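EI: anyone free to look at a 59-residue chain?
SC: sure, send it
EI:
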Amino acid sequence: MSPDSLTRGSARSAAEVNEQIRALWMRAGGTLSSQERAEYELLVVEWAAAIRNAVIEAA
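SC: here you go
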């Protein structure tokens, strides 16, 4: 998943992405490896895009 694709909008809802973030933290036991950190950062960007899209659609 590239950051460019995320700026055009998330295919998933913020709630779906948030659930994946929570699952990642649970699997990691609260401490992220380098690879998990990279995945987390992409998920946070996707989550933020989904929030922005939801606000824009609501407006």
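EI: Residues 52 and 58 are 10 Å apart (CA to CA).
SC: 👍
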